[in-house]
Amino acid sequence: MTTRATAAIAIALALPLASRAQEVLSDEALEAIASSGPSTAVAVDRSWLYNDPARVIAPGRAVALARVTYGSGSPTRAFAGNTGTSGALLEVGGEFGLVERLSAVVIGAQGEDAAGSARTGAMVGLRWSALPLSMRGTQLVLSGGLIRELQGQSGAWARLTAGHDEGRARLALSVHGERMFASTRDTLDVMVTAGATLRLTELIRAGVEYVGQDLEGMLGDNEAEGGARHVLGPVVSAALWSQRVSLVGGPAVALGAGQGRLLGRLALACQF
Known about the structure:
Blueprint: H1 2-35, E1 62-71, E2 87-99, E3 102-112, E4 118-129, E5 138-148, E6 154-166, E7 169-180, E8 189-199, E9 204-213, E10 229-240, E11 245-254, E12 262-271
Antiparallel strand pairs: 1-2, 1-12, 2-3, 3-4, 4-5, 5-6, 6-7, 7-8, 8-9, 9-10, 10-11, 11-12
């Protein structure tokens, strides 16, 4: 009788413990399943055509990118926001995370000058995230480096990029300045890009982007490069392959005097 009572008490005590263990195992199993999905460390964030990304990738990670732009205009610079593309422009490069909040960027470009001759250019620099990672909704990136235009002249560039995510909406604004090492060029070239997109689904975003190039002429500076250029157009992006690949494209309309009226761009990025 005593043995049966002891067994009954042991079973009564063991049942809640077994139930709790099952709950713990279930939670651990769910966490294991969740962790087996795509890591945010390899989720690419390249939803803009002209705006500079407002995030710096994680250390040890890399983003490979390619952009194709087609339009008509003056010999172009090698950075993404340019509006003076003559014919087709191909950009290939990438970004590599060095340490926390700091990365290096290298971009090579090939296109044509105003006479139709093939030219190459390049852009190299560093990108630093000025805000802590805890501020996920708002981003601020400072970057700068050296540039070589398609027409062969070299210079230095610096850029301030701000971004903000609010619900399904994403906003971006960047101010780019550069100084070419040539006496016949402007003292300072200024470009502004801005954009807003809305997340339509988990994978698709759509919105609009603006680019203003050589805006120093509007501030009274002696403009040596044909005056200000303005571009406005829609943009659609898709996050593919568990958000490791980003595909962005869209047409744009040139608003400045003396420009080709249409400009188109397609960009592909993959993060590793």
